[in-house]
Amino acid sequence: MNLNLTTKDIKTDIKIVLVFNKKIKEDKEILKLLDFKGEDESCVLLPELGKLYVGSLNDDKDSIRVAVATAIKKLNTTNYKSISIKVKKSLKAYVEGFELGNYNFDKYRSKKDKKEEKNIYLEVDKISTKLQQEFEEAVIISESVNMVRDFVNTTPDDFYPSIMAAKAIDIAKENELKCKILDEDYLQEHGMNAMLAVGRASRHKSKLIHLTYKPKKAKRKIVLIGKGLTYDSGGLSLKPSDFMTTMKSDKSGGSAVLGIIKAVSDLNLPIEVDAIIGAVENMIGGDAYKPDDILKAKNGTTIEVKNTDAEGRLVLADCLCYAQDEIKDFDYILDFATLTGACVVGVGQYTSGVMGNNNQLNWQFVQSALDSGELATSLPFNRYLGKTLKSQIADICNISSTRYGGAITAGMFLDKFIKDKNKDKWIHVDIAGPAFVEKDWGYNPYGASGAGVRMTMEFLQTL
Ligand code: BES
Ligand code: ZN
Ligand code: ZN
Known about the structure:
Elements: E1 2-6, E2 14-20, H1 28-33, E3 43-46, E4 51-56, H2 61-75, E5 82-86, H3 91-101, E6 119-123, H4 129-153, H5 161-175, E7 178-182, H6 184-189, H7 193-198, E8 207-213, E9 220-232, H8 241-244, H9 252-266, E10 271-282, E11 294-296, E12 302-304, H10 312-326, E13 332-337, H11 341-347, E14 351-355, H12 359-372, E15 375-378, H13 383-387, E16 396-397, H14 406-415, E17 426-430, E18 436-437, E19 447-448, H15 453-461
Parallel strand pairs: 1-6, 2-4, 2-5, 5-6, 9-10, 9-13, 12-16, 13-17, 14-15
Antiparallel strand pairs: 3-4, 7-8, 8-10, 11-12, 14-17, 18-19
């Protein structure tokens, strides 16, 4: 697919017509015969007229994205080559609708669907520098989202910690980023025993990935941390088979962080970014870490393991310590993780949970997410849930003593590894729900969604 910005009324095979709020303006008779009412996500192709009518719930950005994605999915079932659409309101939404709706992961198909590339013309009144920039930005961000989707969709046997590190090295080379890949010897020498324990039974060695983007005149400095569990079997607290499938998606946080730093660099944003990913595989075996083990994290905190399936927080604990020890004077520290099933139960599979000690920052981030088209809400900490992490014999347990509020207790576990001076700078984003799409919704086909990238780009662009 080729996206072009144009001011001309180009003659194309098909014109896409979006119908907002079911207000049909032309071709009423034929559309009535075809029973097209302009319902959300419905469409009808009129080949003789060279038009594709698509219903759009509203004319807000996300309705446009969904409608445009509906259009491109329909057109992908045809051989039409040139397509045009009039852009109203938000160019960004049209670009994202096409780019994200057109995504197709066919790496593992023996027969690829080889259709001729489509040329899409986005018709605008005038191509100002600002509009051109908006177009390029939207393309860059969407391409990053699609790169993240490719990473996450790749199977665990083709995407393990050293492969994730290799991907990070590629991104670093293309974007002239600084790149450190730290191995298990480093983790051992620096007391990162929580992260180390999680990967112990895997044949794939754990990697700590650290990329830095440092523009000449940075006005802000941000640290991003991602859970990169290339597979989460649950460990000895083994997941039941139905829950284990899709756990290749447990690297979504780490993958999102790679997508964000790539997009920030492609856009030359004046923001310094450090991206840290704990790339680990959680497996079973004679050398596996066990419930009853007590692990000492990098900051000296001792953790009683009660469930080896609560592994993400152990990896993140050490990554958070590493970031705060190694990176000086940052403005914000954000972590992204498919951390808990409880978050999905609590807020549904479409929404991310945003947590932290700074309520104003939580809501600011939620607003950025909503503006970007990603769903998120704030999940507030409280002192009572914090106490449920107490251990009888160590400083803290890796699971809570109550089964309620699991997303928040996981967030509060991470809080124990945030230094006092950084408490107000930190947010934790649980993307367990939206990161992996089991039944397509909106412009997200089955599989990885690339959750976390657009919300963070919006947040960074508003700083
Ligand atoms: N990776 C999972 C969380 C998850 C669940 C992500 C569903 C995406 C979809 C995490 O490591 C995990 O297993 N968490 C446990 C925590 C429990 C043992 C306290 C969970 O949510 O069940
Ligand atoms: Zn787990
Ligand atoms: Zn996990």
